[in-house]
Amino acid sequence: MHSIKELQQIIDTAVKEIHYPTTPNELYEPIAYLMALGGKRLRPALVLMATDLFGGDIEDAKAPALAIEMFHNFTLMHDDIMDNAPIRRGQPTVHEKWSNSVAILSGDVMFVKAYRLMIQVKPEILTAVLEVFNKTAIEVCEGQQIDMNFELRKEVSIEEYLEMIRLKTAVLLGGALKIGALIGDASAQNANLLYQFGENLGLAFQLQDDILDVYGDPEKFGKQVGGDIMSNKKTFLLIKALELAQGDDLINLTAWINKKDFVPEEKVEAVKTLYNRLNIRTLSEEVMQQYAKLALDAFEKIDTPIENKKTLLSFAEMLVEREN
Questions:
Q1: What are the residue ranges spanned by the domains of the chain?
Q2: Hey, what CATH class is 4-320 in?
Q3: Which string of DSSP letters, residue by residue, matches 42-108?
Q4: Does the structure show a pLDDT above 90 at 221?
Q5: How far apart are CA 16 and CA 304, in angstroms?
Q6: 236-246 pLDDT tens trace
Q7: How many CB atoms within 10 Å of residue 143?
Q8: What is each CA distance from 37 to 16, 26, 102, 135, 213, in whole angstroms?
């Protein structure tokens, strides 16, 4: 069995070995640029972990794992355009460095390249793998659209938010694991259980991300703490606060949400103080732990030796206990 770091390194090396055509340079250079910005390579590593879990050959899983990484970065490239984001992993986003048109077209090529990599699985599992990949790709796009819809709505329920993050974030973890399981010749039941593990882990991961955005250490979190508060992003924390706040608390929270001109630090501190009064952090952590438990419950049912499960369990712990 391989460690998480070993699998991440395998992916990182494989990404660096991808060769891109030299012309038209404006099409391929942005792809190479974004892929080289790094990241933790967790999603493609999941493909390898799942294959390894069932005793499969991770060499067979490298191309599909790269497909997951290519697809993930394609979504980031297009998401950055939609969000008008200037920075990605500490560097200018593709649309800022080149243009929106370049970023759209380069992203389209990344999606096609993801398919070219994904079809490099054994013929006998190709249909099953593509069914998982197609479903996952569509759901990720659905999640992004729902997230954008939320920006135009005044009210979003907890149930709607959880479904959005399931689609936008969690299904890609589940899909990556299920594809890896199929490559490792897992039974249908084990592959489905692993998908459930990944999906629930993804929900816990995103809820933890919401919490860290407010309560994380800026140096460990790797980005500005309080960004969600400043942008009025409808996270679990804000939705829950709006649900529970009454009287002056609700008046003050609504005022901060509607205020156009404000000192960022002042707004973050004021909203955070209100969250503390409403016990929002604890409530968020409880829901996050519920999804983590659902993930582990599914994982325990997978019929593989306990020794084989250690890497994925370590991965799960790393995601839900992380500080960045």
A1: 4-320
A2: mainly alpha
A3: HHHHHHHHHHHHTT--HHHHHHHHHHHHHHHHHHHHHHHHHHT--EETTEE-HHHHS-HHHHHHHHH
A4: no
A5: 33
A6: 999 999 999 99
A7: 21
A8: 11, 17, 18, 27, 22
